[in-house]
Protein 1
Amino acid sequence: MLRLAMTTDAETFERVRGPLADRGVAVDHVQAKERSLRVSAGADREEAAGGDGEFADFDAGFVYPSRLMEGAVVDTRLSVPWVNGREAVLTSRNKAGVLAALDDAGLPTPRTTLVSNPVDEAVVTEAVEPFSYPVVVKPNSATRGVGVATASDLDSLLGVVDYLNLVHDYRATGDKSYLIQEFLPDARDYRAMVVDGAYVGAVERRLPADAVEEGRWKHNVHRGAAATGVGLSDRARDLAERTAETLDIDYLGVDLLETDGRLVVNETNARPTVDAATKYEPGFYDRLAGLIERTAAAGE
């Protein structure tokens, strides 16, 4: 039986353990953050060489840790190939880079401009000129909708940018860029899953009616939206698969927005949460287990 190191112990870990075990893949958790990690063995090198404790005897990893600094240490200690390695996580996390690559490949995306701080207000003013208000402002590499806001006019936009500037003033902040993006009102929000090049299911993320009436618009599950399994059109399935192919990522969540006849890729996630099996295609776990086996074989 293959042994898979999983660097999350949240919902995905609990959901995949049983189905993957049924397919010959034993899943164990490797904690990659909020702990201490031995970096060098020093005088204990010979003892450490005899076995690496919790990091020993794994065949593959799933997926590269979200904290890249800790991930480098865990990667070295595990010494296994990853379903979605460091490059895949970095690629997907860079929202502007993803949209640029997809646009270059002819895939539909929202109109978007990247602003790289620090810049003068004149640069922001010029950047937003091609857009109609309201616009969406979002940090380039944040997740779960953190820091995403709308601006209804230039003064509101510059106010949001003021707060971003305060964060970016901290010298250790790595990514000081943010996006100005067209707002797509009343868009349906889908998360399509692609495994090893094939669409394997999707959910629609939707806020409760009372939240919508209150003016909320971000359909993140972590912000109270519900994820319901749906069957996507052939057009949407094809778009999700072409997105994964363009980015060369084997296991990918593709966020699609659909409104007024438009269907666009909004973001991607190389560390997507696995939802309940009933929300995916019948072959979801067979295909996922196959990808894990192929990844492990590549490291032999």
Protein 2
Amino acid sequence: MSNYEIELEEPGAQQNMESRNRNDVFRRTNKTSTQQTMNKSNSKKTSELLRRRDAPLETRTDLTASATTDITATMNAILADVFALYVKTKNFHWHMSGPHFRDYHLLLDEHADQLFAMTDPIAERVRKIGGLTLRSIGQISRSQRVTDNDAEYVEPLDMLAELADDNRTLVARLREAHNVCDEHRDVATASLIEVWIDETERRAWFLFEATRRGN
């Protein structure tokens, strides 16, 4: 091969080498970019897993964090009141006396069963929206707004009148809770509250009528 021919071939070979070098640089850059994207994705997944591990009781919900906070606080206060009113109703049921013992005793037992039936749906509703609910008698005691009655003896009609007042107060607090749910568009909790308002108004009605004296 002549020197002239060699000189003609060298520029093409150099161009090919430069092209291969550019391709190598592109592949390395692309590989690095892909690896960085994967690392970011894996880092995000790891971070999410760690967060969920640190908060294992956090339920996923489409409600906002502020909605969960507000509704949880409201419903836990209602739950504490319902537990306190349940125990108070059972207290008067156990210690009822007098000529109308049987009627009042059975009435309060029915009311207590109705109150206790509310507790599980309230607590479960709090958990469904991502909140935490009551854990102990101590927490109920710290949260309740219903006043206990530890008197050794209470007149039967006074028992019924006190429970009637407590149920009417519970109705008012349920309406307030309904407003909180409406504000955050939590229709599921609100629909449960509507049933409980009706039941509580019925208890207040029965207790009021049982305490009425003849004209």
